[in-house]
Design goal:
Distance between the termini: 44 Å
Order of helices and strands: HEEEEEEEEE
Strand content: 35-45%
Radius of gyration: 20 Å
Number of strands: 9
Helix content: 10-25%
Number of helices: 1
Largest sheet: 5 strands, antiparallel
Structural class: mainly beta
Shape: elongated
């Protein structure tokens, strides 16, 4: 009986190791911009923007359910521009650098996220 439990536990452990997450959701923080007079602009209540990093294809997918105008920039660990898209709902390929900063910029808001 103990051998059956050991075999079952081993199979479960090996199957869990083989199923590593390829895609990882990147948390995004959205803040509002301020204009020249330092007057606070109205910020969007909720932007349905999702960013997913795929470590197998070394790419980042940015998508938004609503029609939102924004530009996407991805910077590597040396703060060099590595990828750019003039719109949301895009896929940006990355190099093998481990650390990336994602900046999504709209008219009166900016969203940032980090891939580590």
């Amino acid at each position: 009986m103990a051998i059956k439990k050991l075999i079952l536990a081993s199979l479960l452990a090996f199957s869990a190791i083989g199923v590593q997450a390829v895609e990882k959701k990147v948390p995004i923080k959205i803040t509002q911009k301020k204009d020249v007079s330092d007057k606070v602009l109205r910020s969007p209540v909720r932007l349905p923007i999702e960013v997913v990093y795929n470590n197998e294809t070394m790419s980042v997918e940015i998508f938004c359910a609503n029609d939102v105008d924004a530009e996407v920039s991805v910077y590597n660990a040396f703060e060099e521009l590595e990828g750019y898209s003039p719109c949301l709902n895009s896929v940006i390929s990355l190099t093998e650098s481990d650390y990336h900063t994602i900046v999504i910029e709209g008219d009166d808001w900016i969203a940032t996220g980090v891939i580590e």
